[in-house]
Amino acid sequence: MVKFEYVWLDGSKPTQGLRSKTKIAKDFDGKLESIPLWSFDGSSTKQAPGGSSDCILKPVYFVEDPLRNDAYLIMCEVLNADGTNHESNGRATIEDNDNDFWFGFEQEYFLWNPQTDKPLGFPSGGYPAPQGPYYCSAGAANAFGRNMVEKHLDACMKAGINIEGINAEVAAGQWEFQIFGKGAKSAGDQIWIARYLLERIGEEFGVSINWHCKPLGELDWNGSGMHANFSNTLLRTAGSKAIYDAVCEAFRPVVEEHMEVYGADNHMRLTGLHETAAITDFSYGVSDRGASIRIPVVTVENGWKGYLEDRRPNSAADPYKVAARIIKTVKSVDFTQKAELVKDIDLVSN
Ligand code: ADP
Ligand code: MN
Ligand code: MN
Ligand code: MN
Predict the structure, then answer these.
(1) Every domain of the chain and the residues it spans
(2) Which backbone phi and psi does 97 adopt, to 5 degrees?
């Protein structure tokens, strides 16, 4: 017998939360299509009225559960009882069926002491020394919660999640992990399962995860982002600054549409300080960590072949919705209207 842990996103607004429950199965042949649909009470997760409360869980991705024996973590989409996509189902809105889009998300977060309601490393009264020594630190004076962070890294690796690295971040008790996926849905699935694992490991340590983008408010402490690094065949093979400019410019008129899915309370974080661009501005630039979109220097060094980094999504954003919106904007670039670029595009397709 095996344990299937069905994981899904609830209907909480503005930030959806993780939910999960366990189903015991008689056997499992290791194939996604062998994992059955299941249902849950949507009236308890803000996803259905009490009168007709059934919602459907549709398995879309699974890994071996690194924390339990004979167990699997099953990421699910939520469907209405009639099989249509539930309105909370951001994954279903991603238009990337050929997996041409690659995403690398840099997930920042705070390890949080539920007793003091402060980050790990913060004394119960007052504050630790100001920012400076914590980023990529080592030593008990500056790095807080490493045992838990290491356990999470091991769990992700054991599960086969494509985690790329971790680092201690700028604020005390703040950390980051990076996950890369070929295919927007895959990247989102892996971020959500990694977030789920962090929550579960936190239970063992009595430490909660604060995903808010600015948990220390107006004080002089960095907020948490989830930079979205992205590329498609066009960006990976462009070989042209003009093509990169055209793609970046496509983001300018749709700033509000992007902000709608870049995470709650982002105005608190995108102030123009702490390595961010102001929420009201739009800018892009090579190596510019104060820009909305950074063109990584490696992209330029490789002859304008590579990827872009949208620095605006925050730590609590849904990677599915972020990816869906970025894909929509990148695909909106109409090269037939840009005569000077057609030559470059021809070169690309050759
Ligand atoms: P920094 O902290 O300097 O912004 P990181 O090293 O933390 O950068 O993260 C860079 C991210 O960019 C990684 O998640 C990586 O997977 C991602 N990345 C690299 N190349 C590509 C690419 N071609 N398409 C999409 N993402 C990419
Ligand atoms: Mn990073
Ligand atoms: Mn970071
Ligand atoms: Mn980054």
Answers:
(1) 2-85, 102-331
(2) -70, -25
**For atom 17 of ligand 1, which residue has the closest CA?**
104
How many angstroms does the Cα of residue 81 sit away from the middle of ligand 3? 40
Note the pLDDT tens digit of each residue in 36-77: 999 999 999 999 987 788 999 999 999 999 999 999 999 999
Distance CA 209, CA 170 (A): 16
Closest-CA residue, ligand 1 atom 18, reads 104
| CATH code for the part of the protein at 2-85 | 3.10.20.70
Alpha carbons 126 and 123: distance in angstroms, whole number:
6
Burial of 67 (0-12, 13-18, 19+ CB in 10 A): middle
Given a cut of 60, whether residue 350 has pLDDT beyond it is: no
Taking Cα atoms as reference points, which of 234, 240, 264 lies closest to residue 330? 234
| CB within 8 Å of 236: residues ≥ 6 apart | 102, 305, 306, 307
Length of the chain: 350
313 torsion bin: left (phi>0), alpha (psi -120 to 50), beta (else): beta
Amino acid at 6: Y
| Structure token digits, residue 171 | 């604020």
Give, in order, the Cα–Cα distances in Å from 26 to each of 2, 31, 33, 71: 7, 14, 15, 12
Q: What residues sit around ligand 4, an ion, with C-beta below 5 angstroms?
A: 106, 227
CATH superfamily assigned to domain 102-331: Glutamine synthetase/guanido kinase, catalytic domain (3.30.590.10)
